[in-house]
Amino acid sequence: MRRFAILVVGIGAVGAICATAMVTIRAEQHDVSRLDAQNPRMGGIHWARGQAPAARPNRSPNLIYHDGPVMNAGAYVEPIYWGAKWSDSTFVRDKRSGLTQFYSTIGGSNYAATNTEYTDSVGPVSDGVTLGPDHVDSSDAPTSGTQTSPILAEVCKVATSLVSDGYYPVYVDSPRGHSRFCAWHSVGTCPTGQTVQFAFFYNLDGDRGCDPEDTSGLHSQGLAALANVSGHELSEALTDPHLNAWFDANGEENADKCAWTFGTPLLTFSGPSKWKIQGNWSNRAYNNGKGYPNSGGLLGCIDGGNFR
């Protein structure tokens, strides 16, 4: 069942700041039966094409508010690139510079504004995104993304500004292999006591299951794939940062419900920079018969381009 749990996990030595720390992780219990049952759950899993578990039917496809916070002040982002290959220019290519452009131009965009209809007791989600420094850690990264605790520990060790509105995407150099998902997001507490939002991304070079099939020629395939799933996870971190705010009766968040469906061929951020990014679910659009259809044929996806 897709419910919520609070799990406490011990983290081994991962550097002085996170040595033998106990961290609390709240995570949405999506249907991840093929993952190690002993690991903390992750939220907003971006399943590879055709790999998402079948959703249980319910009377309304809309997202439901579960009383948790949203990111009213927007997100402060510090990307982390983990693994030896991130020191190899032939592997990096345009991925690091491209993601810098992605995060530095997405704030205030019409795409980011697709999240702002969702609110908490303070107010709506902000479309603001502020990019901090990025970091390269050339130590060995996990080859599997089935555990959240090593990713949280890496964030606690490497990030220079641990803040409540911080979002820390961790990009490893390992390919997806036989894993069924491309990325996920979660939330946890560092030994400093600071709660942070974080996310995990595989290396998606040549990965057909996680490829948005961007034919614009503006980006390498690997960068285009990472940008698409990065938009997905950032949107869900903004609208469901602690995994107890906005999701539907099946536990799906706003980006989950529009996964692998695209409205506008290329979305324009500031700069301008252009990206092929799937849309996000809008309760308002669905209620008014607007938006474009998701993979289930339901109108309600918006992307800030032709569909708002």
Mean pLDDT: 87
How far is it from the N-terminal to the C-terminal residue, by CA?
33 Å
Question: Fraction of residues in helices?
Answer: 10-25%
CATH class category label of the domain at 4-31 and 68-254: Alpha Beta
C-alpha Rg (nearest Å)? 18 Å
The proportion of strand residues reads 15-25%
User: By helix and strand content, what is the structural category?
Assistant: alpha/beta
CATH-defined architecture of the domain at 4-31 and 68-254 = 3-Layer(aba) Sandwich
Question: How many beta strands in the DSSP annotation?
Answer: 17
- Form type: globular
For the largest beta-sheet, the strand count, sense and barrel status come to: 10 strands, mixed
CATH topology of the domain at 4-31 and 68-254: Collagenase (Catalytic Domain)
Could you explain the architecture of this structure?
With 308 residues, the protein is an alpha/beta fold. It has a domain of 215 residues: Collagenase (Catalytic Domain), CATH 3.40.390. It contains five helices and 17 strands. Strands 1, 2, 3, 5, 6, 7, 8, 9, 10 and 11 form a ten-stranded mixed sheet that branches. Strands 15-17-16 form a three-stranded antiparallel sheet. The longest helix has 19 residues.
Write the layout of secondary structure elements.
Elements: E1 4-10, E2 22-28, E3 43-47, E4 64-65, E5 75-77, E6 80-82, H1 89-92, H2 95-105, E7 129-131, E8 135-137, H3 149-158, E9 166-175, E10 181-189, E11 195-203, H4 221-239, E12 246-247, E13 267-268, E14 274-275, E15 280-281, H5 283-287, E16 292-293, E17 299-302
Parallel strand pairs: 5-7, 5-9, 6-8, 6-9, 9-11
Antiparallel strand pairs: 1-2, 2-10, 3-10, 4-12, 10-11, 13-14, 15-17, 16-17
Helix pairs in contact: 2-4
